Amino acid sequence: MATSALNPNVVKTKLDKVVYNEFAPEKKPGYASVENSKIFNQVKINKGAQQEEIFASSGYWDQRGEDQNVPLGQSKVGQGVTYTAVEFSRREQIPKWFFDDEKFNMVTNMIRGMAYNGRRTQMLKGFATWRNAFSSTGTLTSDSLSLCNNSHTLLNSNKTVDNYLTEKLNDGSLFDLISTLAEMLTQDGVLAGYTAETLLVANRRFKGACELLDSELSAETANNAINVYSSKYGIFLLQSEMIGAAAGGSDHYAFMLSRYHEVNRYIREALTTWSKDWTQSDNRSFIYGAAYREVYGTPDFAGTAGTDGTTGAYA
Q1: Are 270 and 35 in contact (CB under 8 A)?
Q2: For the whole model, what pTM was predicted?
Q3: Which of 294, 264, 290, 272 is nearest to 49 (CA)?
Q4: Most Cβ neighbours (<10 Å): which of 3, 6, 187, 198?
């Protein structure tokens, strides 16, 4: 007997609600997601591949005498890199009998499981940028080096930039990450003075990072020194299990970002769902699927510094 549950539009609407709820950003203290612009710039693209080039301005201004011509700057563009969007998708086959026999919980659980795994796939793939930030096999910057590296080359200067630290996250290394951003050079060799805004850590380090940033006094010390991080810097803290050892990274990883970082999420197609009614299938089954297309890229190391935590001790 036909019921409203077999109406393909009604079925898709109900299943869409399940899927989009699962893909909504998770809500827990300091949780990092691919939608968070503090760690991923959100860039919508209208083609299958995104081409990026590095821009270097003309450096510090020159002093000019009264009768001299205004100095001419020489900006430069180069080190092109292309990021190609990738589709991730999955479909499920739901027998018509499930609807006939009112096994609606089974249908919901089936689609919820599909959607949950799709969301975890998105997080795993997106945070590979941070998980592999110290690796030459990860997402490289336009100078063909890892995001955090000792020898970044500049486009319009003969100097290099080191944004790769090794000490575990403690009072000293936290200050070093902040200072690395402040003393970082732009592509034309200008002292950037980037302000530390966001600290991203593996979830195993979230508790310790909270104590470093939020304690009224210096964390894990016997003296009464003020905690300058809580009183002066106002750094925003985020955590993710997708950069830790469980995901193939390290529980020691920590990254400091300014608001001008260049870690990008290029979105070609947001999450989309589709369906096919059981009357259009060979085995009398309802087909429901979902997909999204995106890619992650780091054309420039600007505004980012990280430590792999291979030396030293925690606070």
Answers
A1: no
A2: 0.89
A3: 294
A4: 187
